[in-house]
Specification:
By secondary structure, the protein is mainly beta. 12% of the residues lie in helices and 58% in strands. Helix 2 crosses helix 3.
């Protein structure tokens, strides 16, 4: 396919490594299972690793492939072949999950070139030295919006120049230990790289490519005391590839915590901080925190800290019931790039809800993914995808996430209200924050799934997104609404088929469009 030739060699090598890892894992399972002599399941269980390959095939007809205004629509058929692999390790020195999918898109009745999209969600923890030396690693590949004021689209299959593929890799080795009986310590280094594809109008001018490194040292007093202390020092540097801008920050903070009751934790902090967001600045920082856990299913936590460039806070209310999980969050902090991971996805919501039912993370992962497939819900669905930036921002996020399940019905709701403003200025900035000093993004996604029979489910999803900004006397605004209705049928223990309809409307004055689509999909897990 043409899209395959556009992949840089390092990305193709990465994908090849994922495939080899999957094949090696399958082979290891087979050999281990064969070694048991009696039951292959015994070998798989002893290995502590689960591998689930899959392949999906879909056909979509759309009346507006290029998201053009009325009268200029480009009707097309889209064929998608999507091999994927899920790996879960729950024992041994390496634990974690990996879910990778490659979407090969072929456009018929259109002159658009075929292309390949990648999706990856991986997280793992390796224990290199028992109880002492560890490594955390996270990797993500997803489709993200370049500009908050460009076109929004309901699907990555459509030809939208305002979407790009973003790859993020984070590696964090750390060392834990004790200083006699006086204190415990953790020394952690973190490195992160974010890279986006070239392609699409504006992709090269707002790439969002970054490299980031940090070093953190934490000390804390012996556990179990009602009154305890802590010390934390960190330094961080981030480099923006497009602008050449470097941001550095460092701080040293002392904390004092008090546990007046088993349900309460109170704390205060104070120290010094140095940053260069608005020139070299050294100032005092101080703050307070609390955590209240009235029941095992309810948690309320919050902290506030004063900074010279803008105060930060983080407040979370989380409540779980047998059929309901509710999460309210409000945060304000420095963001170094577009990262929607702070928003709750369908997968995270149901994972949180079933955490008390199935404490084993690997078994819960399989349970949640099976439920989402049966209900026809996207595991990674969120209400907004943010936008790419080439500078540090002060970002405020207010989010609501709710999931309710019953024997026949599942309802999920995610709503967000995000505000961003640039920290500092750069002469060659070309992202949205060069156009608007403040950007506000609001979104909501409501999904209702109903189980007609044990093997058949219907699903209706409504999504609304809106972005606005103020700058240089001009008001910037963009919005999109999308309604999808689908039905999913379980054809076999590992086979699902879906049929759906979609209607999308963009209300942007210059980029407005309407799109209707019908699609059919089949997924086979092995």
């Amino acid at each position: 396919m043409a899209g395959l030739h556009r992949l840089p060699r390092r990305h193709a090598a990465c994908l090849l490594a994922c495939g080899l890892l999957g094949m090696a894992t399958v082979q290891a399972q087979t050999l281990d299972a064969g070694g048991s002599g009696a039951d292959g399941g015994e070998g798989t269980k002893r290995l502590g690793m689960t591998v689930v390959p899959r392949i999906g095939v879909s056909e979509t007809w759309t009346d507006n492939l290029t998201l053009a205004p009325d009268g200029q629509r480009d009707r097309a058929l889209i064929t998608s072949v999507s091999p994927g692999l899920s790996i879960t390790s729950r024992s041994g020195w390496l634990r974690g999950t990996l879910d990778y999918q490659m979407d090969g898109l072929l456009y018929l009745k259109s002159d658009r070139s075929s292309r390949v999209q990648n999706q990856l969600q991986a997280r793992g923890n390796a224990e290199l030295v028992q109880s002492r030396l560890f490594v955390d690693a996270n990797a993500n590949i997803s489709q993200q919006t370049i500009s908050a004021f460009g076109q929004s689209s309901p699907s990555g299959e459509l030809d939208n120049p305002n979407r790009t593929e973003v790859r993020t890799l984070t590696v964090s080795p750390y060392w834990r230990g004790m200083l006699s009986t006086l204190a415990s310590f953790e020394l952690r280094a973190t490195g992160q790289m974010r890279d986006s594809s070239e392609g699409g109008a504006g992709a090269s001018s707002a790439s969002g490519d970054t490299k980031e490194g940090s070093l953190n040292l934490s000390l804390s007093g012996p556990q179990g005391r009602a009154l305890n202390w802590g010390l934390q020092a960190y330094t961080r540097r981030i480099h923006y590839e497009l602008t050449g801008l470097d941001n550095r920050s460092s701080s040293a903070v002392a904390t004092l915590s008090w546990i007046p009751d088993v349900d309460w934790v109170l704390g205060v902090s104070g120290g010094r901080e140095k940053s260069d967001y608005f020139g070299n600045d050294t100032s005092s920082i101080y703050g307070a925190s609390l955590k209240w856990t009235p029941t095992p299913r309810t948690t309320l936590s919050g902290d506030w800290q004063r900074h010279s460039y803008g105060n930060s806070h983080n407040a979370v209310l989380e409540h779980r019931m047998t059929q309901l999980v509710l999460r309210l969050t409000s945060t304000q902090s420095v963001s170094t790039g577009s990262d929607p991971s702070g928003q709750m996805t369908n997968y995270q919501l149901l994972d949180l809800q079933y955490s008390s039912i199935e404490p084993d993370a690997a078994k819960r992962d399989a349970l949640v993914r099976s439920l989402l497939a049966a209900l026809g819900l996207s595991p990674s669905a969120i209400s907004s995808t943010g936008f790419l930036t080439n500078t540090a921002t002060l970002q405020q996020r207010n989010e609501l996430a709710l999931a309710w399940t019953s024997p026949r019905m599942t309802l999920t709701l995610a709503a967000n209200d995000n505000k961003s403003r640039a920290l500092g200025t750069t002469a060659n900035a070309t992202d949205d924050l060069a156009l608007a000093s403040n950007i506000r993004q609001r979104g909501v996604t409501l999904s209702v799934a109903y189980r007609f029979t044990p093997l058949s489910t219907g699903n209706v999803t409504y999504t609304r997104q809106h972005s606005s900004g103020d700058g240089s006397g001009n008001a910037l605004s963009n919005g999109m609404s999308s309604l999808t209705a689908s039905t999913t049928h379980r054809l076999g223990p590992r086979t699902d088929a879906s049929l759906g309809l979609r209607h999308t409307r963009s209300d942007d004055q210059s980029l407005g469009y309407r799109e209707n689509a019908i699609y059919a999909q089949m997924t086979q897990r092995f």
